[in-house]
Prior knowledge:
Elements: E1 12-14, E2 18-19, E3 42-43, E4 46-48, E5 56-67, E6 76-87, E7 91-100, E8 103-112, E9 118-127, E10 131-135, E11 151-152, E12 157-166, E13 178-189, E14 195-199, E15 203-206
Antiparallel strand pairs: 1-4, 2-3, 5-6, 7-8, 8-12, 9-11, 9-13, 10-12, 13-14, 13-15
Amino acid sequence: xxxxxxxxxxxxxxxxxxxxxxxxxxxxxxxxxxxxxxxxxxxxxxxxxxxxxxxxxxxxxxxxxxxxxxxxxxxxxxxxxxxxxxxxxxxxxxxxxxxxxxxxxxxxxxxxxxxxxxxxxxxxxxxxxxxxxxxxxxxxxxxxxxxxxxxxxxxxxxxxxxxxxxxxxxxxxxxxxxxxxxxxxxxxxxxxxxxxxxxxxxxxxxxxx
Length: 209
């Protein structure tokens, strides 16, 4: 897989060879076999899984090597196919930090900029050890989906808020009393059950003097 910043090899999970009439009858194994014998009219199916962490153009290159086991042929042959696609974000996150009595309030606005509706699985604020965060409002306000989880339609917006308290002394304090507070982690599912995850960069705040 070639992404905008790197090129990496991806593992493939293969099913056992099966006949053309029942290509999905065997469960997927955990690792790809080094070689597989295919009978006439048989097929082999594989699944490649990759978490896309960058926006922009991606290229998936698949190379297949094989040899015919006839009496007149034993030479190894190969062919390659390229699949090009563009990765686009599903969510845009906007955050704002303000002061409240005894601490700070982190407001986050989650906007669905994708083509399909999303079901939010969770929004979590992971803080440094010297901070503690708690959700100020329920994540599942508004339209309800299965199990009461929020459904954010195309172009829709979901807002969440956390109250952050200082419970210890930071290891490092930057200029003007600025410190790293935590990271916002968001997970969701698409219409076909496919999982998506997003983490913000470190969110900072200014300590009260």
